[in-house]
Amino acid sequence: MPQTLIAVIGAGRCDTATAELAFDVGAEIARQGATLLCGGLGGVMEAAAKGCQEAGGVSLGLLPGSDAATGNPYLTYALPTNLGHARNVVIAQSATALVAVEGEYGTLSEIAAALKIGRPVVVLGRWSHLEGVMTADSPAEAVRLACFHCTSSQGVTL
Questions:
Q1: N or C: which end of the chain has fewer CB within 10 A?
Q2: Alpha carbon 53 to chain centroid distance?
Q3: Residue 89: inside a domain, yes or no?
Q4: For 4-123, where are the alpha helices, taking DSSP H only?
Q5: Residues 6+ apart with CB under 8 A from 137
Q6: Residue 45: phi, psi to the nearest 5?
Q7: Are 89 and 116 in contact (CB under 8 A)?
């Protein structure tokens, strides 16, 4: 059966409130039966993977470097790409939908790549002013919107 990949994107370092949002997004992805895709490092990525793991889900981290050991401890699978920031495009291309939790310029690059190739992007917090994104008021709403729009996306299915 094909598996929906929901990418959670955001900064590698974040405050407690942002980490809590990311954790809840990860947990909701697991509850919806989707697989979490992320950049595999700390901050938003780690919090989302932790939420996913604690809810019994599966997470996949596409790491920027060549060492799988650099991935956060909550990933089910850590895949070293040795692509640096270029992995952001791979994440956008591979995901069936993306949820942005706050973030910085790396997050913006993932949003732009996703929108360019027609992937649905849901934002929590920052980036709500961007044309083409959907905004959500809660982690549950963000994942619901992402899953709803997955049927029209062309992302990778497992």
A1: N
A2: 14
A3: yes
A4: 16-31, 43-54, 87-94, 105-116
A5: none
A6: -65, -45
A7: no
Cβ-based neighbour number of residue 66 at 10 Å: 10
pLDDT band at 126; cut points 50, 70, 90 = confident
Which pair of structure tokens corresponds to residue 56?
């019994």
What is the domain count for the chain?
Answer: 1
pLDDT of residue 158: 42
Q: Give the structural domain span for 99.
A: 5-152
Q: Residue 106 — φ and ψ, nearest 5°?
A: -65, -40
Is the pTM higher than 0.90?
A: yes
CATH number at residue 112: 3.40.50.450
CB proximity list for 105: less than 8 A, separation 6 or greater = none
Straight-line distance from the first to the last Cα atom of the chain, in angstroms, rounded to the nearest whole number:
8
- Residue 8 bridge partners (DSSP): 99
Is 157 domain-assigned? no
Joined together, the tokens standing for residue 9 give 């994107």
SS3 80: strand
Q: Per the domain annotation, does 158 fall within a domain?
A: no
